[in-house]
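tool_call: predict_structure(chain=1)
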Amino acid sequence: MNEYKQMMSDGFELNYCIIGKGKPVLVVGSSIYYPRLFSEQLYQHFQFIFMDHRGFVRPPRTLGREDYQLDQILTDIEKLRATLQLEDIVILGHSGHSFMALEYAKKYPDHVDKIVLLNSAPSNSMERQQGSQSCFEQEAEPERKAELHGNIALLQSDIEKDPERRFVHMCLRMGAMSFYDYQFDASDTWDGVYTNMEIIDYLWGEAFATLDITNGLNELNKPILLGLGKYDYLVAPTTLWDPIVAKYPAIQKVIFERSGHNPMLEEEQYFNEILTNFIKQ
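tool_result:
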């Protein structure tokens, strides 16, 4: 059972938990969801700090857009780092949280040693999302497509029954696009995870859709591990990153050949090896 603590920030009660000892790895996202994805083996070598951002906690009041700007999220991350007196951290972001991790590193480079970006596209624009969907339709095997189409047919009913968990329903029903084993049931990983759809809709639909991640990348000068899954059709194709990787040699790109959106869970041992070597090198 993980031990949780709280940090107050502008009225938001942000939970975090600390697992393991060693060099600090700060994982932004959900403090409930993400510990379920990473291996106990990693906690023997590194200190993982899993923290909520505002999209995963109940709001303290009726919110305005100023309450969940990306810059506010970065300020929360920095507040936790300072509270815990962490230095030379590895900042890790998965999926859309990769944008948070990278932008944090740009804003607070003095406290960051290395950056890990997992299973993200360089952009979350509607054009990119449509391109990923087209890639799935062109490349996925018929059985995978049938599994997705059958699940998507049930999505609207899921949302109508439980609209506050729309983000979770979407993640689960799109499993054929996000797991190497396209019939994998990931529902246990989302158990008890609260989602604030007002905040998530803004971040994923607006902030990440218009963000140019190359801004400030030249000046960052930090090692970056970019981990991508071959079967991660949510952010496909992996070649989207090639122009950026070619321009910025600090980025080390790794493709997990038997993974979708969650290589830390799908290829645990190989992922552990890659992450450990990157942090220790």
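agent: The two ends are 32 Å apart (CA to CA). Proceeding to next step.
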